[in-house]
């Protein structure tokens, strides 16, 4: 509280000693008011003893120590697979200039594209991006335990870039719990587990940067899209975007070219509406 000094000439009519007495009396009254407040507070909130204080001490949780992603990763990685889609590409065996009157001989070359997928039902069916497995001659699946299996496409939706795979001869696979993309919020912490650049079971974390009703990609519009700053790279496509409850809220789909921190995932609610008949 500010104290206003009297205007000049005020001390001519009032003695300085009387002013000092008033100031001292004011300080004394303030002192006793403060003491009474302290006494009342102690009566309402008695001090804790050593045992009480130690029993109420907050023990640091995994989240406070920065290890809160570890149990989520361990829980979810069993339901996540890495994908190799083998395609054949035909190209000339020799330059065209070597052959003036006849077409040059061709050779076939195998090309491997990397991607990610995750289990969505008790049958062990795997959800991934359609562009990862489209036109593949062979699909190879890598499980969390290092086992390799073959898979085939049992359903796909090119327009919405979704595909379901059935794994051949695999042990029982653990489906991941599916959450809700509509209930997710901007600023919410998320993590991505995938196979970027062929690096299996790679974890990255970030936040939801924005939620889009639709995003134009190439010649199609994708709806219910989540923007995130998680590291999404080639090979991450088809992998899950997971919240801190361990629930899948999106499927990583694409990234902005030559732009870091601009990854996009298809919201799981839109995906569930299209594959509902295949879910448990």
UniProtKB/TrEMBL annotation:
GO terms for molecular function: serine-type endopeptidase activity. The keyword Hydrolase applies. Transmembrane segments: none annotated. This is Serine protease. Keywords: Hydrolase, Protease, Serine protease. The keyword Hydrolase applies. One of its GO terms (biological process) is proteolysis. The lineage of its organism: Bacteria, Bacillati, Bacillota, Bacilli, Bacillales.
